[in-house]
Amino acid sequence: METLNNLLEINPNYIVIGLIVLFFSLEQILKTPFKFKKRGQHLFQNVLFQITLVILNIFFITLVVYSIDWLNNSQTGLLYLLELPFWVKLLLSVALYDLTTYWIHRASHKVPLLWRLHRVHHSDTSMDSSTVFRFHPLELILIYQTGNIITSAVFGTDVLSMALYYFILYIFFFFEHSNLKYPNWVNSTLGLIFVMPNHHRVHHHQEQYYTDSNFADIFIIWDRIFATFKELPLEKMNYGLKEFDEERKQSFLYLMKSPFINIERRMSEQSEELKNDSEGKPAHSNDKNGI
Ligand SMILES: [Zn+2]
After folding, report:
1. How far is the CA of 206 from the centre of ligand 1 (A)?
2. How far is the CA of 108 from the centre of ligand 1 (A)?
3. pLDDT at residue 287 greater than cutoff 60
4. What is the per-residue DSSP string for 180-235?
5. Which residues sit opposite 239 in a β-bridge?
6. Separation of 82 CA from ligand 1 center, angstroms?
7. Can you give the residue ranges of every domain in the chain?
């Protein structure tokens, strides 16, 4: 318990800085699945999102913590109906925050207003560790922070489990978005339960057929249970969104204002074919060539 408290007392910004330095350096040193140019410029643009988020979040995170504490004090939520050991409740709460995130993420792909914010994250044509930062701050603050309060109101999860959830989530975020190769045994074992880079890469494919899959952040079991799990070989990967392909549309300033611009979603013929092919088939009919 003391170890957990010590761990969660570390300033989350230091953890994020440590993770980006580690993963970005590994991508520079090791042989990577994709070769991306102008990595420094790409990193700089993405870091601007994180700086904006940190500044805006100072107020909102206080609001979220206050709201969840208030809900816990009034013993609101399903977990208060059960007598559970501390660690079971803690881990279950982490899974429940992840479950809510799964559904919010899935809705963000379906509801046009939410997609306007979420497409900023999908716009990255050269996905690497710094893509973790490329989220519109309004999405993380307004949508996902509200999701955390709803999770607490429905399930009775607390601030400690939310802190642990974000600690694990950021490690997974860097792991999933990094442009690194991982051993096959990692995918075939841990990949049964947890989200692997190969799973999340499919989610960043340009074709909407693939973008609308693998919504989970930590537990891939949500996609397996709710039939949104798909696989695709690495060599078929094509990151980004067609409507954001131009270089000027990859800049921080353009992306920050992009939710307020009408941008039509562009689909390729291949996307239409995939959609037609999948009709009548269950969404989780996996590509047998999956990696
Ligand atoms: Zn998404």
Report:
1. 11
2. 7
3. no
4. ----HHHHHHGGGTB--HHHHHHHTBSSHHHHTS---SSBTHHHHHTT------GG
5. 205
6. 34
7. 2-29+39-278
Tell me the per-residue pLDDT of 205-261, one tens digit each, with 9 for 90 and over: 999 999 999 999 999 999 999 999 999 988 888 899 999 988 899 999 999 999 999
pLDDT confidence of residue 288: 33
Cα–Cα distance measured from residue 161 to residue 95, given in angstroms and rounded to the nearest whole number: 9
In 3D, which of 216, 117, 235, 136 has the Cα closest to residue 176? 216
- Cα(272) to ligand 1 centroid in Å equals 19
| pLDDT for res 284 | 41
For Cα atoms 135, 193, 107, give the angle at the middle one, nearest 5 degrees: 40
Q: What is the mean pLDDT of residues 29-51?
A: 92
* Distance from residue 158's CA to the centre of ligand 1 (Å): 26
